[in-house]
Structure formats: C-alpha cells, structure tokens
Amino acid sequence: SFYLKNLFSESLAGRKAIYELYPLDFEEFLTFKEKEKRFFVDFSEKAKHKNKISFEVYRKLYDEYLMYGGFPGVVVEKENKRTILEDIFKSYFEKDVKALTDFKGIRALRDLILLLANRVGSKVEITKIASELGISRETVYSYMGFLEQTYFIFLVSPFSRSLDGEVRGARKIYFGDVGLLDYLGKVGEGAIFENAVFQNLKKYGKINYYAKFKGAEIDFIVNEKIGIEVKTHGDANDVKRLGKTAGNIKIKEYYVVTKNYLDSPEGILAIDL
Predict the structure, then answer these.
(1) Does residue 175 surpass a pLDDT of 80?
(2) Which positions ≥6 away from 132 have C-beta within 8 Å?
(3) Per-residue pLDDT tens digits for 94-126
(4) Of 124, 89, 93, 91, whose CA–CA distance to 108 is shortest?
(5) Closest Cα partner for 207 from 193, 191, 218?
(6) CA pair distance 204, 166, nearest whole angstrom
(7) What would the pLDDT profile of 65-89 be if each residue is shown by its tens digit?
(8) Dihedral (C-alpha) 21, 169, 110, 97: value to the nearest 10 degrees?
C-alpha cells in the first residue's frame, strides 16, 4: 500500500481504482470458517435480534478471532497460527520496512511498535513517546506516518462538531489486526477486545471517539450520530452511564457492545457486529 500510494500516484493518474482490503472482520471470519450466521446492517436491528442460543454457538469462535485475528492465512490454518503471525510480522519488519523506507533506526521503530501495542485504545502523546524512546518528535511522526500508511496502525480522532476541533485533538491508536496485537505484547483482555470492536466498526463509516477533559468518555462515535461503548462484561449501569454522556453531546442513538450476553435494548453482542 505504501509503495502504491507514494510511487504510483502520478503515473497512474486517471487509470487506477483503489480497493482497501483489511484483515477479516468477524462476519468474514465466519465465512472462511464455513459457518453461517445472519448479520444485520442497522445497529438497532443488531440489538433487537440478539439471542442466547446464537451467543453460545459463536462465542468460542469469537474467542479464536480475538486471539489470532483476521489474516486469511491464519484463519484457515489449523495448527500453526502463531508461526504464521510471526512470519507476517517479521516479513513486514525485516523486508517491507527496509525495502520501502530509508529509516536508520530500525530498532527504534521496533521499540515504538511494542510501545504502541501496550497503549491500544489510549491517546497518542508524541512528546512522551519520543522521550521514552530517546528519539526526536520528528522521528516519531515519521515512523507513525509509515505505520499508518501501511495499515499497521489506525489513528482515531476525537469527536467534535467542528473540523478544527477534530484536527487539534489527540488521536487514539488501534492496530490493523488483533492477532498481530496479541502476538506483539502482553496486552490486556479489555484492550484486545476494544481493538477487535474497532476493526469491526470501520466498515460502517467514519469513526471518532469522545472524551471530556477529565470527565466522561465514549469509546467510539460512528458517523457522528451513534455512540458505542465497549465493555468486556457490560451491564445495565454501563448502559445508563452511556445514555447520560451521549445525551450531553446530543447523540440520540447509543449502544454498549459486550463480549458477554447483555439483555438490554441498548446492548449489542460483539459476535453480532
């Protein structure tokens, strides 16, 4: 992707179409597993049609998805999933990075990747990262730009009613594939789950997050009109808190996405995303 964007942009002007192929979302994951499941497009329908039988049938498959991610070659492999993930990362790091960039501090880039893996779902503080790694802010920006352009990471901007406010705010980081994220470091269950939800939300449109200074937060705002809070073990209190926060910023539609079964009109099961 980096090669195409930077070297073919002019030579193929007017003669190219760009298709973005991400690692599999959970619906595609099930297709590769040759499992059938009905998915609804509207979030309200996802919340309305959840049921315990479907939850029990697919939750182990979702656990596999969380652990190994959505690279097709990994999904269809039966035994050596970790080996393939290791090969994907080594190929990216040892071949793609060296072939496509003139970065001198390859070790610093690797350290940055490992540091970012442990900050998934958190705001990116460039100055702090540069200080921890002992490199300049400009170098961090350069590395981050490459990681983003090659779809290794995604940066999510804060929700704002004005474009100016969205541009100024600190962005949150997520990885392109939850399997790679799990492979790279000791990442907590909550962060892994939040990253997986992000991967499955991207297909619905624009994604932002909301955070009030030292106050309430909403993990994701979809298309500036749907609030999504992510909870590994969600409950009615989470729904109530989300409703209050969403109301304060005039978001009328909101849901808590959970890994467990939540019997609430505003609850969506992660397996149904």
Answers:
(1) yes
(2) 115
(3) 887 877 787 877 888 889 999 999 999 999 999
(4) 93
(5) 218
(6) 19
(7) 999 999 999 999 998 999 999 999 9
(8) 50
H or E segment and range at residue 230? strand 226-231
Closest CA to 69 of 147, 229, 181: 181
Spatial contact of 141 and 169, defined as CB atoms under 8 Å apart: no
Strand order in the sheet with 207-211: 207-211, 217-222, 226-231, 253-258, 267-269
Distance set, CA 214 to CA 36, 93, 125, 211, 218 (Å): 44, 37, 16, 8, 13
Distances in whole angstroms, Cα of residue 91 to Cα of each of 76, 97, 176: 20, 9, 16
pLDDT digits (tens, 9 = 90+) for 242-256: 999 999 999 999 999
157: left (phi over 0), alpha (psi -120 to 50) or beta: beta
In single-letter form, the type of residue at position 71 comes to F
pTM reported for the whole predicted model? 0.89
CA-nearest of 91, 152, 145 to 120 is 152
- pLDDT 10s digits, 215-237: 789 999 999 999 999 999 999 99
What are the structure tokens assigned to 126, written together? 């460039």
Angle of helix 106-117 versus helix 137-149 axis, rounded to 10: 70
Overall average pLDDT of the 6-17 stretch: 63
